Amino acid sequence: MFVYLSKKIAIPHNLALQVVAWNSAQGWIACGGESGLLKVLKLESSSEAPAKTGGAQSNLSMNQTLEGHQGNIMVITWNENFRKLTTSDQNGLIIVWMLHRGIWFEEMINNRNRSVVRDMKWSSDCQKICIIYEDGAVIVGTVDGQRLWGKEIKTQLAFVEWSPDGKNILFCTLNGEVHVYDTEGIYSHRVPIYCLDNGTEGTVAIAGIDWYDGCVGPDNQVPALCVGFENGRVQIMRSDSDDKPVLIDTQLRCTGLKWDPNGTTVAVAGMQTQQQSGSAGDREVGVVQFYAPHGQHLRTLRVPGSNLRSISWEGNGLRLALAVDSHIFFANIRPDYLWGYFSHTLVYAVLKKERSEHVVVFWDTQSDERYTKYIKHVTHIRSSDEYCVLVTKADDASGQYIIIVCNDIGSPVDSKYLHIEPMHVAMTNSHVVVASEDVVYIWMYRNSVTKQSHGDLAAAAGMLGAGSKRRTEMMFHIDESFAPGTGLHDKEGFVPPVAPAQDPIACITATEQCFLVARESGVVQRYSLPHLSIETRFAIRCRPQVIAANCDSTRMSVIDINGMLTLYDIEVKSSRGSGFMTTEMEKKMNQGQDTAGQQLEFERKDVWNMRWASDNPDLFAIMEKTRMYIIRGLQPEEPVLSNAYICAFRDLQIQSVLIDEVIQNPESPRKEVLLDFETKSLRDTRDILTKVSNLKDAVSYVDDNPHPRLWRLLAEAALDQLDFGVAEKAFVRFEEYQGIQLVKRLRLLDDRVKQKAEVAAYFQRFDEAESLYREIDRKDLAIDLRVRLGDWFRVIQLAHGGNEDLLQQAWSAIGDYYADRGKWSNAAQYYAKASNNSALVDTYYFLEDYDSLERLITYLPEGSPLLVDIGHKFSLVGLCEQSVQAFLRHGDVKTAVDTCVMLNQWDLAVNLAQQQNFQQIEGLLAKYAQHLLDKNKKIEAVQLYRKANRHTEAAKLLAQMAKEMPGGAQKNPDRIKKLYLLAALEVEKYKNKTLDAQMTGVTNATMTTAQTVQSLITADQSVSSDRALESPWRGCEAFHLYLIAQRQLYEGHYEQAMKTALRLADYEDILDTQTIYSIIALTTYYNKFFMQCSKAFIKLEASPDISEEMRTKFSDLALRIFTRNPPRDPSSRMMPCPKCNTRMHDWNVSCPSCNYRLPFCVASGRSIFPEEKAGGIHGPEDAAGVLGGSTGVVKCRTCRHRMYTSEVRKLRNCPLCHSRLDAGVAVPPSYHEHRY
Asked: How distant, in Å, are the alpha carbons of 442, 711, 729, 766, 1091 from that of 756?
């Protein structure tokens, strides 16, 4: 940071000031002194000042004298939240002032008349005030004047301070002790004092106490409580009980101290004794010392006068008010902000205390776009032409630092970890140089050798070893003296020294050719880049704080700790080749006999910012107090009022930024904070060109002050006047080849108007150029100009009704314009006008307008390459039919089939392969199915077969899955039934498909009975190889009956359950013996049919498929049952056999006489008997039909199984195949329909 005195206000009648207080919220300044002097002043804010000056000047906008005190003013304190001023004098009179219509009035008065008020402080929320008197009296009151409590402390008091949270009050006694009380006035503890020497405690008075109220919470470890003593000793504590405070000896007779509003700097004011030459004796001068919270000394400010009594900060922390004798001095603070400027981008970091991290903003000053990052512990920001480097502390406990190189949108390009503490950082276009107190680290972050294949960098490529990690990161100790190739260490191999440096590094700088290291003693060491070697060493007579080198590394500027700017010649005229330093050479340098290090005759005071021009080694700009000076050589130009930081100096133009305003509003900076200044030569050249019509004066002036920017100005002015001789000379002088060619082209033109139009186009005044062309009736040239510009909207206006090819080109270009901006619907309209089918394909695809894309297939000619693109786009979104259509129109059958396969549309693939005689599809289908089966994905294989219309393969696989279902009928009977059902349905589809194919394949109008029979025989032969295909419904029927029997048994319908279970005996090829006869034995036992039950147990005991253990259990169970129940069946209803009329039980499943198997009802499981009519019995044909009457039977058209109408009256679906009955059940057919 830099500090300088900027303003002084004299107090009338030379009355000495005692105290000054600056209201940080509203900006009022209250000052009090002798004889009751009390004034309230206000300075103009920087926002009220003209923008171009950057807030450099501040005039008084309020100056009011408050009358009411008679004695010397002792204490002044502001209540910022309620806009009140509280003052007290030596007589103990306290007055509270309030603002009314711009005038300060007395609001409350209090006079204790017993002692003098030593201090008053408001709490951080401004709700309470604590007033202490010298005799130990304490009063705590509210903002509205109400007294909360009072207390008499048995000691004399000097100062009071509130804790930031308002829970404690600190009282400082006259003998130098600090006591802590709570808000109720109860004593808590004593603050330990460590800064005083042993034996002096209690004898040194306290000069001031200040507790920064911005650090609240137990996790905040930043020191915030500052206590200063009159002998200059200061301690900064983290809390009122900190046993390891920061200790400082300021060497002052301290008179006061204050934290800045941000808590980053504490200012300690006092008087310092200076020895006078001769017999004048010693005298005291006013000094303000600035320290960081952790004790680092930042700056010393010397103040003229004999008595510095009080200081106070402005609300933004950029100015400090000092009460000196009968004057108020104002000191401007120029903080060391974290910022950089590169590539038209301003990068800056601001600490967000609520998040405990820095917000880093990359602000593109041209487009006004901002990119925000949040990074913890940012310590440095430096920039080059294209990149910036951020230095941060690692968030873990490793103590490492991270060096991050970022581009202009804040994206990290590369990063490195570092074990030394980066105290100084410099950056060039290829290197980052970081230094601690005694160690230097160099990182070649960008391989510049590839960009410049010749020169020093190319020569260095072999030495450095491009891409070698060892040579891209180097470290060395500052006291090492080495030649090229010796003394260097890579980062991993470097061992830092144990002992601290005797002469630490003070600052560094770097250019493309070298980097300079300045040490606190004034020794400067110059090293070459990129091949690292020490070039020279010299001494300067100051303690440098900031150094910088010009663009060709021949001069160095130094700003010392007092703000003095000096210049040095650092050009190395000795041989650079070897880099070896002999003893004689070292002596020569140390004695200052070498030319490097010679001080130039140039000095400026109070300089706080400077920058060399990046394109001229003799030009630089400095900020001296509130003025900007541009120095050419050693001669300054006329100053300009400014308070801005310099960003860049190039082309005789300075870019600067009011970084103070940017930091105060980091989220949304205004473009008004960016200021541009021109050098005198640039301004004078503009004036000459503007005011003088003859270019001779301008040519002679630019000849005397040559610079490429001035020659460019002159060339542009000469072109405006069509003075081609001067223009060509100027273009040659600043080496602009395109300009020379322009002049040659202009000389060839025969018309002066054409020349003017070309010049206007060169200056980008295109409307003027177009109007000039149209004046001479050269519309074609105007169109050509707009075509070259890409202004296709204007081209359409000019070429309307003209060249159709040009219009199509313009429409297509406008479509490209909208497509680049993502406005695809607008782009589609113009592409359609231009018949740009290639672009239309992409546009419709991005719009997801697949209907228009499909219509484009028929519009395009057959074989067009665009059809392939359309096909691929449809396949990407899963639209198989449209994709196939596109590929077929292109004539690519194989790709069409492959698309069907890829999208799993096997039915379409097979049909397409059959139509196009594509043989490979069968092998591909089989291979893919086998692949799925190898991975045990049987369901997926079934789906594959179904999509490819391979019904028999699907049925076989489903039947196999049903048989292999784990758990069998005991665990998953419903799932197994579904698998058998799906297999049966696949077989039905196959039969129907085969029959339909035979029917449609006959050319005759009718099909003979022989042909029908032949087709059915062929179908039967194809399915007879597999039992599951031959009798597809058997498995489904078995598990269906098993499920019905179980349900009827659990519902207590034992007779129906028995009838259903007895039928399961026909399905021993599907269900295992134990399952079948267990359910039969169970149902017959409950229904008291012990004969049938006995038969079932006989089967269970004799079956070899059942284990011996289970057969024994069945035998024991049968013994217990039939010892109590004889094996007899009860009587039951008798029904005639439909075939032989033999009477049989209604629970029989087949006729005992003729073995005719009765059909069964799939809804109830019982056998279906024909109805007895008129005493006669119908023939066996009736069993195949559907009979009317109350016992009518219906048949499902899908599975062709029957059921009693009474059982399915409330059902909508077939109980077996689950198809819709309203769609699959017809009216009962007549008896004659089923006769043989």
From this structure: 54, 21, 19, 11, 124
